[in-house]
Amino acid sequence: MNTRSLLLAAAFLCATAHTGRAQPTIQFSASSYTVAESACFATITVQRLSDPSTTVGVDFATTDGTATNGLKYTAVSGTLAFGAGETNKTIVVPILDEGFVEGSKTFRVILSNPTVGAVLGARTNATVRITDNDVGIQFQLATYSVAEDAGAVLIGIVRGDDGMLPATVDFATADLSAANGLDYTGTTNTLSFASDERLKFVPVPILNNSLKQPNRTFRATLANPAGASLGFQKTVMVTIVDNDQGFQFEFASYTITEDAGAALITVLRGNDDTNSTVTVDVATADVTATNGLDYTGVTNTLSFAPGERFGLITVPILNDAIKEPTKNFRVTLSNPTGGAALGSRTTATVSIVDNDPGVGFELGSYSVWENAGTIAVTVLRGNDVALGPITVDYATSNLTATAGPDYQAVSGTLAFNQNETVKAITIPIVRDGSVLNNTSFAVTLSNLSGGATLGRASTTVNILDASRLTSRTVVPPFDTALMIRREKGVNLITWTGGGHLQRADRPTGPWQTLTGATNPFTVQSPIPATFYRVTRPKPVNVYIPSSYDGQTPVPLVILLHSYSKTGAETEAYMQFRPLAEARRFLYCYPDSTIDRWGYEGWNATDAIGYDFGSNGVDDAGYLRSVIEEIGRQFAVDQKRIYLVGHSNGGFMAYGMGCQSADLIAGIASLAGMTFLDSSRCAPSEPINILHIHGTADDIVPYAGGALTTTGVAFQYAANMPPFPGALQTVQTWAGYNGANGQVTDPAPTLDLTTDVAGLDTVVTRYANALTGGAVELWTINGGSHVPTLSPEFSRRVVDWLLAHPKR
């Protein structure tokens, strides 16, 4: 030991002898640190332990590991000085963000040479790991599924590196179980990315043959990148879904009312060779229904001319005026000719629902506001027309409501003529405001004459306390576009504009809603003294925040449900009602018209729901009438009217944006796209667009294309034009709005689902959007078509919309 060292040691021993303190210890706060390549800096903490009262120092320096100074980081060195009372110091190392795909790299930081009175602790070396943010050029998805008759599949390729130079990559397809030239057209191409391009699509033609065969697959591969590296997803598999089902019934079961006149049963030809004439035999057989008593059996050969894909079997239904349970018979397909084949659904069951419920109330309960004045309670005769004129007595009685203060008691006798099927009992409701809570009374039928039988003999009328009004029913205007025509021995009622079919015995009513009626609707011939009309779809309940004063304009939010779901089901999924109260806006979730397959669905864009049920429904006109009617009944802020839609409802929201931009301030679409052909949409002015989509959506793919869901309705939809991807959708609307300056956050910033842990959503926005025309894309990494929404989802969506009014 030299003289200087001895003196230092003596000084230290002297100091510790007099103070009794432990010597200061300097070390890193952790032995390893992780930093993203895009973070710009790595911050490393050095601790001083034990005696904090003295001034001490320590040297530091970086050294390469797998990371190289000047390429991945900038080397630093120096001395940290801890003043009296200081226990932490930081070392800042610049991190360099380059555009190469190379995985994580590491470097080290080393402490040395503590000053007088200090010693090094256990952690004198710290490893810094730099995670790579460059995924290179790769396929957007790992798999695609496309219908055989879709025409083409659009395969997305994304460039995920930070490189700012142009890049190229080779694209090529290869057979698996699908054959080039038979099932698809092989494609070989070199894709060129400009410096700011991040997404390209390659169309691969799909060939539609008339052979019934299993699904087939082919592979696409990326190779030979220039100016960039390849990412992990270098190959993608495409499945071609066969659309040649052979002869089969459209449905496995049909339900028809006893007085419908006939059951119309559809036979599908699938997509077998439609250029030739083919036949298939049809025959009915009893199950619980009896040929000659409940229906007239048929044995027939159904012929399809060249080009025909649908055939119709008409089975006469016999109305016996006897009250009885539902009866069934079976229809079977056999003996296809002309090279055609049978599909999987060669038998169908037809259920005949008895229409003779006896004389009874149409509904088991009715509701009326206490200030409504009157309520009409409907009594139906069923279809016991063969029994001639009948009478039935009626009378009201108290439950929790009291005759006099709450309603006016009524009693009497209803007289039905032979052809009358609907009567109404009008009951006055007293307008004295005495109802402080909901109350009810009963109406009862008795003493039926003429040999008929009683059905629902009593009903309950609920009187609702108007002072507790939290919602109000809004009924759009009637639509009476209805036509009756004679076809194949039965009368067919058809209508346009959606809505529900009603019938009455006289033009003034009362009207009975035929809730099971589908378009077209078959009726018995002749129609005896019966009147028909069509109403708009179900009335809309508008939810009112408790702070609404009737004078101050408030926003309006309308939720559009997905296909086959109701508005209530979609609200249970989205859960916007609590926000209507908290954020003070009017809120409703209307139901669409039921299509020919019995599902709720909006007539939206050309790619999905655009009248593929042939209902002739003008949903855009209907929704506009809903908005206008709510505007007449409430104080609505005309600059804050918004639509939120999921799937088919999201497509519908875009359709409304195209047609009613003068009314709508903005839309939010979850998993619903706009028109692929931008010329199909001509918004009259900018509207705010929030598009939300999961990258793992297997129904409406993030990259666009065609529906990948099976089912009868979707088989029809599969013949429709494809839809754009999520990015193309927002780019199209940015064009409509005159927006530019696309900016994507470097990492997820939102937590919209519970399916993916932590932050899962990346935001892309247009920085230079016109006022009133903001456009944003929220990409849910790994999100499905129906993601499990986090509590943050509804709040984020509503707050975004309310922050973007119409200008």
Morphology call: globular
Helix content class:
10-25%
Structural class: mainly beta
Strand segment count: 49
Average residue pLDDT: 83
Number of helices: 8
From the N-terminal CA to the C-terminal CA, the straight-line distance is 82 Å
Q: In what range is the share of β-strand residues?
A: 35-45%
Side by side, the strands of the main sheet go 43-42-44-45-46-49-48-47
Low-confidence stretches: 1-20, 609-615, 710-718
Main sheet specs = 8 strands, mixed
**Rg from alpha-carbon coordinates:** 36 Å
Protein architecture, described:
The protein has 807 residues and is mostly beta strands. It is built from 8 helices and 49 strands. The strands form 12 sheets. The protein has an 8-stranded mixed sheet with strand order 43-42-44-45-46-49-48-47, sandwiched between helices. Helix 4 (619-633) packs across helix 5.
Question: Secondary-structure map with pairings?
Answer:
Layout: H1 3-19, E1 25-28, E2 32-36, E3 41-49, E4 56-64, E5 77-82, E6 88-94, E7 105-112, E8 119-120, E9 125-131, E10 137-139, E11 143-147, E12 152-159, E13 167-175, E14 188-193, E15 199-205, E16 216-226, E17 235-241, E18 248-249, E19 253-257, E20 262-268, E21 278-286, E22 299-304, E23 310-316, E24 327-334, E25 347-353, E26 360-361, E27 365-369, E28 374-380, E29 390-398, E30 411-416, E31 422-428, E32 439-446, E33 458-464, E34 471-474, E35 482-487, E36 490-495, E37 500-504, E38 512-513, E39 521-523, E40 531-535, E41 540-543, E42 554-560, H2 567-574, H3 577-583, E43 586-588, H4 619-633, E44 636-646, H5 648-659, E45 666-670, E46 688-694, H6 712-717, H7 726-737, E47 742-744, E48 761-766, E49 775-780, H8 791-802
Parallel strand pairs: 1-8, 2-9, 11-17, 19-25, 27-33, 42-43, 42-44, 44-45, 45-46, 46-49
Antiparallel strand pairs: 1-3, 3-6, 4-5, 4-7, 7-9, 10-12, 12-15, 13-14, 13-16, 16-17, 18-20, 20-23, 21-22, 21-24, 24-25, 26-28, 28-31, 29-30, 29-32, 32-33, 34-41, 35-36, 36-39, 37-38, 37-40, 47-48, 48-49
Helix pairs in contact: 4-5
